[in-house]
Amino acid sequence: MGVIRVVLVDDHEVVRRGVAALLDSEDDIQVVGEAGTAESAVTRITALQPDVAVLDVRLPDGSGIDVCREVRSRMPGLACLMLTSFADDDALFDAVMAGASGYVLKQIHGSDLVGAVRTVASGQSLLDPQTTASMLARLREQESRKDPLAVLSPQERQILDLIGEGLTNRQIGERMFLAEKTVKNYVSNLLGKLDMQRRTQAAALVTRLKAERGERGDLRPW
């Protein structure tokens, strides 16, 4: 792989000097630049084209997460390692969504930080299985908020749409070429998935969603 070129971004000069000295003492790592603000970080990283950017999450004029998102949009191959003083689930989630490869606390041992730089430089992630599971759960939650019908199958969505039109089970069956008993089972299932007891609740949900979506005419995902 050769020498790993690193740019350090932290608003505390003492921290930058300490990390730079630590990394430069390794034969396979070279600190090629430093920055203390988000604005200068974007400029320096873009100009120097390092392999790894070690970014403080909190900067005087912005966030290291925003820097990560910006520079990776220009340099997709760049590995960003977020460095922070305290654990923050929201910041961790935002960092991952911005494309960061790793997230470590400043209390980390020096040898572990060196290992972290090598790990992300090799294209690997520093997120442990528990963190990854948490991220996936949060993504699913966001998707569910974006589309409250995400739990429904296409067939159930169509039936829900027809419930919103005021059709009975028999009428839905005729429209969809299904037996009335089959429609009744679908209705029971979709009400359960939506945590509802009555079809009037489902009809009200359809009305609200269509109003929010500009009366598009169906309940397809956005």
From TrEMBL:
Pfam families associated with the record: GerE, Response_reg
Keyword Glycoprotein: no
Domain of life: Bacteria
Example GO BP: regulation of DNA-templated transcription
Modified residues (4-aspartylphosphate): D56
Segments forming domain Response regulatory: 5-121
The HTH luxR-type domain, residue ranges: 145-210
Keywords: DNA-binding, Phosphoprotein, Transcription, Transcription regulation
GO molecular function, one term: DNA binding
CDD domains for this protein: LuxR_C_like (cd06170), REC_NarL-like (cd17535)
The protein's name in its UniProt record: LuxR family transcriptional regulator
